[in-house]
Amino acid sequence: MNKINKVLLLFLALFIFTSFNITAYADYDELWNSYSIPSSRQKELLLDEADLLSDDEEQTILQKLYTVSQNRECNIAILTVDDHTGPIQDFSDDYFDYNAMGADYDGNGILFMLSMYDREWAISTAGKAKYAFTDYGQEELVDRMSPYLSNDEYYDAFMSYADICDIYLQEYDNGYAIDVNNPYHTQYDYLKLLLISLLCGFGVALIPILVMKSQLHTVHSKSNASGYQSHQGLNMISHEDRFITSRITHTPIPRNDNSSRGGGHGGSTIHTSSSGTSHGGSHGHF
């Protein structure tokens, strides 16, 4: 085999290897154009690559995401894919960064991603969303979505996601992130707590009344007061209470100065993505 044939075979092998890699990764690399952060957002706030939603559902959710994002000055985004390469947390961070998903509001944004092959989910947060969506808050968010995700009710899951993000960001803007010392409650939760409190109070009040009633079974009504009169006459004894001294002690109540934005045992776990951007986030299966 001459030198020219060896060179041709080498180029042919290189071409086949390159073509295989392009084919293998084309479905995923097309989700961002390059490994550099652009100056403006490259994708819609909802990208349903896994085709989980109807066209009408996509439009409704997309409008909801834009409304909440504008009101809270933080992009609320969703991505669904059939599969992904590498760890899902890294993939969601890269999608967020290399599509500049937070560019509309100074880098503020949250992405919720679904990968259907292994039924995985991931959350990637950046900017103020890193602190608005604490570790506790993210866990609570996914717990609220899980019944819908488990039943493949993706429209309801994503609408719930948008509504909860709106509440989280409002709480954060008011100075208190949803965290272990500021739990998330819906109006239904408050109504349920009120009902439980009323039932408990009624039960606590009813039990001693029933006990006292059970002890009065020997009591009978009298037609006159003769049964209660003493035959020895009325004997009154003088009684006097005299105040002598007093002693007052003071015990200071400890103050909790921990901020809900990362204080106490709550807060957000932060990591750095391949682009060098600081992110919060979490991931799991549904």
* Portion of residues within helices: 40-55%
| Number of beta strands | 6
Order of SSEs: HEHEHEEHHHHEE
Strand fraction equals: 5-15%
Low-confidence stretches: 13-28, 187-198, 253-264
How are the strands ordered across the major sheet? 1-2-3-4-6-5
Report the top-level CATH class of the domain at 41-184 and 267-285: Alpha Beta
Mean pLDDT: 80
How would you sum up the major sheet?
Answer: 6 strands, mixed
User: How many angstroms separate the termini?
Assistant: 57 Å
Coarse structural class: alpha/beta
Number of helices: 7
CATH architecture of the domain at 41-184 and 267-285: Roll
| Rounded Rg | 33 Å
CATH topology of the domain at 41-184 and 267-285: Diaminopimelate Epimerase, Chain A, domain 1
What would you call the shape?
Answer: elongated
Which features does this protein show?
286 residues; Diaminopimelate Epimerase, Chain A, domain 1
What does this structure look like?
The chain starts with a helix and ends with a strand. The protein has 286 residues and is of the alpha/beta class. Residues 13-28, 187-198 and 253-264 have low confidence and may be disordered. It contains 7 helices and 6 strands, in the order αβαβαββααααββ. α2 runs parallel beside α6 (154-173). Helices cover 43% and strands 12% of the residues. The protein has a domain at 41-184 and 267-285: Roll (Diaminopimelate Epimerase, Chain A, domain 1). Strands 1-2-3-4-6-5 form a 6-stranded mixed sheet, sandwiched between helices.
